[in-house]
């Protein structure tokens, strides 16, 4: 565990998530499980980069599917412009 990391007791971690959104709870639970699984092993690319890489592709895919492939509507929902969406889709092999 890094010097700045704080491990919450199990009951405190549960209490903390009660005021979070369902998406936030899912992320918290998954990151907690991932950290428990890797222990003190370093994440070569950094945890932030790993999470963004793992989450962004499915997010783009689902939002685009929900909007029947309409990139303009998907970009608007995501809060990014269409050119940025296309760049991200290409980066994730979704074009």
UniProtKB/TrEMBL annotation:
<dbReference type="InterPro" id="IPR002197">
    <property type="entry name" value="HTH_Fis"/>
</dbReference>
<dbReference type="Pfam" id="PF02954">
    <property type="entry name" value="HTH_8"/>
</dbReference>
<dbReference type="InterPro" id="IPR050207">
    <property type="entry name" value="Trans_regulatory_Fis"/>
</dbReference>
<keyword id="KW-0238">DNA-binding</keyword>
<comment type="similarity">
    <text>Belongs to the transcriptional regulatory Fis family.</text>
</comment>
<dbReference type="InterPro" id="IPR009057">
    <property type="entry name" value="Homeodomain-like_sf"/>
</dbReference>
<dbReference type="InterPro" id="IPR005412">
    <property type="entry name" value="Fis_DNA-bd"/>
</dbReference>
<protein>
    <recommendedName>
        <fullName>Putative Fis-like DNA-binding protein</fullName>
    </recommendedName>
</protein>
<feature type="domain" description="DNA binding HTH">
    <location>
        <begin position="52"/>
        <end position="91"/>
    </location>
</feature>
